[in-house]
Design goal:
The complex is a heterodimer of chains A (152) and B (88).
Chain A: E1 15-20, E2 23-30, E3 37-43, E4 48-55, H1 59-62, H2 65-78, E5 85-90, H3 97-105, H4 111-116, H5 119-126, E6 131-132, E7 136-137, E8 143-148
Parallel strand pairs in A: 4-5
Antiparallel strand pairs in A: 1-2, 2-3, 3-4, 5-8, 6-8, 7-8
Chain B: H1 10-20, H2 26-36, H3 42-48, H4 62-75
Helix pairs in contact in B: 2-3, 3-4
Chain lengths: 152, 88
Amino acid sequence: MGPPTPRVDVSSRFTKESLGGGAVQYRYLDPTGDGGHGLIMAIDSEGTLGFEIRAEGDAATLGTGTDMFASGMQRLSADGVQVNAIRGYWMEDSGSVNLQQFTENLKIMDPQAAAANTWTGRIAGRYGYLQVSSPSTNMFGNTTVIFSKGTP
Amino acid sequence: MDNILTGKRPTDVFKALLEKEPSLTNADLALEFKKHFLKVSDEAIQSIWQWRRPGRDRGIEDERMDAIVTHYLKEAGYFQGSESGSLP
């Protein structure tokens, strides 16, 4: 299965901001508040993409999570921003669907398969980011996993 | 933001910014933070996105956010004696 095509294309609605040092950020609406809807993507100087996505508003007009992510990837491509890897960073107490899925998957899968079978892991896989790092959980209970280009 | 390096809690600095400009989002705060601390890992940015700011129903509480942000600042070498050093 290849990259998804957004049914609601919001690629032109992202704002681009410099984070300094070659890093950039793209924002569509605001996923960081209550009832949040939107996507924010931070791409560091090494081309690693970290993002936050929420779809708690009207998906029919504002886009689903998949619509927003696909639109964001289209926009990055159009702007010539190279994404070498996608970082999943899943925090306890943040309401992270990915962390919930990862934790559930760990009951029946090894850690890398558990990460690959999250929302982020699956959509990263559709863009060819199929290599999954060993998930690491820090002292705060936050889990980081890197999805890179290549075969599993 | 520089006050963080002299011992002010990150979330207190964020709250002070919000008092001046209530329309700032967590994404705005993270952007300002990153502009001040260029070397800090983007995981710090992703953390600030999740902050339970005043009035927000969910997210990471102040004390934990302070510890997380301080950890990434130390990791990036912003505190003297850094990495495994104690808080300033």
